[in-house]
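The protein record quoted in full:
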Amino acid sequence: MRKLLFIIFVMGLATISCQTQKKESTSMENPFFKEWNTPFGVPPFDEIKVEHYVPATVEGIKQQQAEIDAIVANSAAPTFENTILELDKSGELLTKVSGVFGPLSSAVTNDEMQAVARELSPLKTTHRNNISMNPELFKRIKTVYDKRNELGFDREQMRVVEKYYQDFERNGANLSAADKEILKGINIELSKLSLQFGDNLLAETNKNFKLVIDNKADLSGLPEDVIMGAAEAAKSAGEEGKWIFTLAKPSMLPFLSFSEKRELREKLYSGYFMRGDNDNDNDNKEIIKPIVKLRDQRAKLLGYENHASYVIDINMAKTPKAVYDFLTELWEPSLEMAKQDVKEMQAIINKEGGKFELASWDWWYYSEKLRKQKFDFDEAEVKPYFSLEAAKNGIFYVVKNLYGLKFIKRDDLPTYHSEAEAYEVQEADGSYLGVLYMDFHPRDGKRVGAWSTGFRSASYKDGKRIARIGTIVMNFTRPAGDTPALLSFDEVSTFFHEFGHALHGLFADGPYNRTAGSVARDFVELPSQIMENWAADPEVIKVYAKHYKTGEPIPDDLMDKLMKSGTFNQGFITGEYVAASLLDLDYHTPENPEITDVREFENTAMANIGAIPEFLPRYRSTYFSHIFSGGYSAGYYVYIWAAVLDSDAFDAFKQSGDIFNPEYAAKFRTLLEKCGSDEGMNIYKNFRGQDPAKEPLLKKRGLL
């Protein structure tokens, strides 16, 4: 998943009893209870054990509750310093523990970690509930909020006061005592359901399906590096001499694109799109129903028409209607383009003597043939120029030219897995900016997709800046034999994308934890997606795209083919994304939240927009982790909303004649540093000097 950067608003619990107290470590044994004397204060991963998380979290909750109690008990009149600032500083230990457990529960999870997550989820949700619905605390916040225009606040103070007030209001602070209890129960149940959805999907993806091939003839059409990778996967699984393909996209998509065995393409793709929908112990259909109902109930309790209205109210879009209108504007030309592609792919099938209609599991295979036919372009020709190291060099080249940054690999830093790499990040003058971990390849215990998060956010303590410790996690093609990891261009773009999130985290600079780097959900993908523009720019590609064997740069003719094919298949790429975004909105703007049949609901949603059977929405309901376990509910649209911003922003660089224009680079860095200090559109206009235009995006995707 392309995951975004956001600030977690951590809250508290009054009393806790925990069945795992018998496991509790002493303060001396538990690394969370002491200062980390590692380089740059990175987590001492080699010391942290699974049994440390629960006692450290329990203690963190107790400590923050004591801090909240002290704010409430203060007999002095509420002020910014004794209320807002004290709240903003609270929960240091809890944030420290969550900052490690959260990222690791996605990158290196196992049965023990999942059990801990299930235990901690209701504790932390109750903790958040008890603070967000604390009437005396809210009364003090409201007092400061009501007088904010009279107290001479600077912009940062005004922003943090308004955001805290908004947080509490949106989390039920104005509800009656009875309704608060209802809301608490809803929040706890939703946290459990969301966690179960994610655990089920992980099992369905990494454990419950694999395509094992034992006949070499069944590999026909596959590039050699793909075959080698499948052989390595089989060897690792104890099935040497065979070939294994999994539901991880670096394994699945090359097979779907190049395998000549249609029945095997169908088997593999069916395994993918039926995840969570197999009527087994990991089925997600019965989890989706109460999630939708409870979210709708919560939104109405808080005074909103539905969950989408609740979510989008604080986004740039403001209303579900604005999002529906925006998506429909993109859906219609995408669908028409996809229909034309279907005709042309069916013509290829017919010409080859195929006696079948194009199906969803055929799309990648015949779109590759169509691309070859139209542009004489073959993905397999390009991959040798996009090794993982080449892509990494390209990213380092871009950020050095934009911001002067240097990334120095540090083998002396503790890491959470042998495959994770650690980098010290330095400014142009050699001063320290932060640390970034990179974790590239799929494995058991790692969730699917790609994301950026962090073990520690940039902040201030006693006037001193505490630097970011970030991480980007991906699931890229593995090396095979003597061949390094060779990436598809889509994987290269994903790498640049997640690096953009990482830069956002490294640069974020603000005096208050609540607002530093914190932006609306439909703004958060701008810092990531703009980096994809440099990844695809010919000037940059010529620098980093070098053949892994010869070191020769990508030839001009191959570069030209790559550029000309840039708008190819956009009907499918944009269409499957928009279809999933509309499905998300349909779930969260229901006329009746009592869903009786998830499959029927999904089919109806697709029929209503005229979706064609040749491709499915990018995420079917039962594996739509973004919206049911990943924090993007009623917000999956944000990637393409932000795509308007990133395309318009990069167009400013292009129009200046210098894609590394120092003036624009400095202004964009300021946007990344200060984006939490104002509303998203205001921040963007400060950079661009005008409203964002849609034309650069539509042109880039060939949708004009």
About this structure: The longest helix spans residues 320-351. The chain is about 55% helix and 5% strand. Residues 1-25 have pLDDT under 50 and may be disordered. The two ends are 28 Å apart (CA to CA).
